[in-house]
Design goal:
The structure holds 2 protein chains of 2 kinds. Chain A is of the alpha/beta class. Helix content of chain A is 34%, strand content 29%. Chain A has one domain: P-loop containing nucleotide triphosphate hydrolases (Rossmann fold, 3-Layer(aba) Sandwich). In chain A, the strands form 2 sheets. In chain A, strands 6-7-8-3-9-10 form a 6-stranded mixed β-sheet, sandwiched between helices. Chain A has a 4-stranded antiparallel β-sheet with strand order 2-1-4-5, covered by helices on one side. Chain A is globular, with a radius of gyration of 17 Å. Chain A starts with a strand and ends in a 6-residue tail after the last strand. The mean pLDDT of chain A is 90. By secondary structure, chain B is an alpha+beta fold. Chain B has 3 domains: 181 residues, no CATH class; 173 residues, no CATH class; 122 residues, no CATH class. Helix content of chain B is 45%, strand content 19%. In chain B, a hairpin with a 4-residue loop joins strand 2 and strand 3. Chain B is rod-shaped. Chain B starts with a helix and ends in an 11-residue tail after the last helix. About 2% of the residues of chain B have low confidence. The chains are: A alpha/beta, B alpha+beta. At the A-B interface, helix 1, helix 2 and helix 3 of A face helix 1 and helix 11 of B.
Amino acid sequence: MALLELKNISKIYGELKALDNVSLHVDKGEWVAIMGPSGSGKSTMMNIIGCMDKPTKGEVLLDGVDISKESSKRLTDIRRDKIGLIFQQFHMVGYLTAVENVMVSQYYHSMPDEEEALEALGRVGLRERARHLPSQLSGGEQQRVCVARALINHPELILADEPTGNLDEANENIVLDLFRQLHREGTTLIVVTHDPEVAEAAQRTIVLEHGRVAREIVNENFVD
Amino acid sequence: MTKRRMFLRMITASLLRRRSRMLIALLSIGIGATILAGMVTIYYDVPRQMRSQMRSYGANMLLMPDEGETLTTEKLDGVLALLPEEALVGATPYRYVRLDMTSRQQSFTSAGTDFEQVKKTSPYFSVDGRYPEGTREVLVGKEIAETIGVKEGSTMELTYQPSVSSASGEASADWIPGAKLSGSAEGWSGGTMTVTATLGEDGAIAEIAVDASTQTEEFGGRTQTDQAFLSQFIGRKLPLRLNPDADEMVGAGVASAKNSAPEGSDQVDALSGATVSSAAIVNALNSARNADATAKPNTVKYTVTGILVTGGEEEGYVFMSLGDMQSLTGEDKLDVAELSVSAEEEQLNAYAEQIGQSGQGVKARLVKRVTKSETAVLGKLQALVFLVTVVVLLLTMICVSTTMMAVVSERRREIGLRKALGASDNSIRVEFLGEGVFLGILGGVLGALLGFVFAQVVSVNVFGSSITFQPLLLPAAVIVSVLIAAASCLMPIKRAVAIDPALVLKGE
């Protein structure tokens, strides 16, 4: 059953076609990687899937609902309820501790619950670092806090933008292991990357070039 | 944990952990609130301060007896009781009497007063020497002092002549035999001549003495010694007149005048060559007779304790204590009381009306010149303070707004992140407003306390007196600071809301 379906979407900035008639189908529980060089339309696609932008043409069905014509206020609600975001630059609130950063996500979603937030941090192996400020955490630790933050509200879709782009190999593996866990639990994952190794961890890779889907690779060696 | 607690945790963390930037905002709000609180304190305290200060310009209210009534010390106390104690700076009673200084043939307006009160209602009085403290002491106006040549430590004899009664010459019936009459009149070339006479059993003149020392020796001066001239007064009753028919005049060496004054008549002959002086003697006797001879003149010797310098008409007066004046005149009577009341013009009018209607037979009048200028000066001062306050508030708002603007640009990514995490526009608004309000509260409390110190310093240095802390100032300063902080946040919030959440994805 499709969680996300892009039907012939285009995003046009003046003369530039950032996305040109792209279609994509992601099933519930699926782990999909999106690859492509800079300017291939990855970010635009990510923005549209993340409910932060709307396509110029085409339909976006998320959980069966067409979100391509929704107001930005509605999009905020949908993003909050269904999507967990992970960013390349980690993006934590600098003056809040790790656990507080996780709670911010709860705060906007429903109710802040410190216990649950600590549990989520425990899951990414950072329970002891919960009271540290981002400046006191390493890059890898920060990204793991972001993973905890993304999963805290049990989103149906986790959307990760270059999640390992700024990480060393050890931390990259930790993050990928977390993704594997989430995948086993049935969370749908869409990971935008240009790192083949990260892409290979997914079940399927979509390669974008010049705003179009150039090819699609199914990972034969996917280990669940 | 509730949402509210998380909200508070977020905004306090934002303020406490991002100190430098927030300190600037806090400082600007704090300084704004300080000046605001200080100015408001001064605004409300200045009239009080200034009113007391302005009271140094003299009395602003006069109390006088109604027509046909007398003002006494007792009555004055009754009227003063109508005024609030703290508003009454001073109340000076005055009793004006004309006293004679016989030795100099001068008479001065003299005032009986309460010197302790004079210091309060007329602080601009300057005394060369000291104010009288004991009895039989006087303060002499500079003008008089120069005329009669007295100085601190001199003594002077002052005589109270009971006032000329309004009754006509008929008072003669009450004359006591042996009563002494004393009168003076203007003789030749304006010199004062004094005549004293003693009345006999029959009310006729028994003895007479003339002081003609001011007259030319070989003419008017002879009236003092010429027995032929003087003897004609003996046995005659007052009033007298000069013989209009005489063509020769009596005097030493002149046995008698042709058509001399008839024996037993009301006429006397003038001394040859001293007509004017003779007429003066007759006038002096007549005026003395007209005075109520039953009340004897009272003469007291006083010590001059100081010379009063005011630059005004007070320099032409002699001042003594009210007690001395009462024992000299034998009357407890006041002519006027000068009041210095610390109140606004409107309030003063209300007091005056209240006094007028108290049924004590006293009316109050405002010294318009003083009250008007006081009101005008205070009004202008308050307007100035108000203007400065408004300008300071505007500057504070600009400063806070600029700081918050910088805060928003500095926190663009954080705001984008919050929006990406699902913060609605309203959440962003509320969060920033919350920080603003928090800053406002902190700045307000800080400002109210510092503002009081500021006002105190200004007050002590400018007005020379301290002020009392207004408890209401604290909540007022906090509320105003919160409003200013919130208003200053409006523009920055608008900008924050416009931030695109997608920016966090672009790896900026």
